Amino acid sequence: MKHLFPTLCTALLLTGCEVTTSSVGYSPYLEPIPGSITYRGQPRTKLTKAPVGSIVPHQFIDRFGRRVYETYVIEPDRSLLLVSRRYRDFLLFDDD
Fold first, then answer.
1. Among candidates 61, 60, 57, which has minimal Cα distance to 71?
2. Alpha carbon distance 44, 94 (integer Å)
3. How many domains does the chain have?
4. Could you read off the pLDDT of 40-79 as tens digits, one per residue?
5. Which domain of life is it from (predicted)?
6. Per-residue DSSP letters for 14-26?
7. Is 23 part of any domain?
8. Which of 95, 29, 61, 51 is nearest to 70 (CA)?
9. Is 1 inside a domain boundary?
10. Which residues contact 22 (CB under 8 A, 6 or more apart)?
11. CA-CA distance, 63 to 26, in Å (whole number)?
């Protein structure tokens, strides 16, 4: 009986835990949106001086007024792979 309470508490704490693919890393279902570098295909210029695996950050304002932060990785064929996207909703007092 004295082990029942800690076991119940542990079970309740574990049921509140969740893992999302966006927090873990690359999501194979992440598609470019208007404003993304790769929205209408790969850029015409190849990134020849950047090493393979380099991270390319990109930010823009979407059509809803949210600031969008995207991260790309340079692939071995010099194409860009979109690996993450974050949104910042409130832009009223934004300095950048």
1. 57
2. 32
3. 1
4. 999 888 888 889 999 999 999 999 889 999 999 999 999 9
5. Bacteria
6. HHT----HHHHS-
7. no
8. 61
9. no
10. 84, 85
11. 24
The pLDDT-based confidence of 18 (bands split at 50, 70, 90) is: very low
Q: What is the pLDDT of residue 4?
A: 56
Report percent pLDDT > 70 for the chain: 64
Structure-token pair, residue 53: 């695996």
| Residue 40 lies in domain | 36-96
Cβ proximity of 75 and 59 under 8 Å: no
Q: How far apart (Å, rounded) are the C-alpha atoms in residues 43 and 62?
A: 19
The helix/strand/coil state of 6 is helix
Does residue 69 sit within a domain? yes
DSSP string, 53-69: T-EEEEEEE-TTS-EEE
Other C-beta atoms within 10 Å of 40: how many? 9
What is the average pLDDT across 18-43? 71
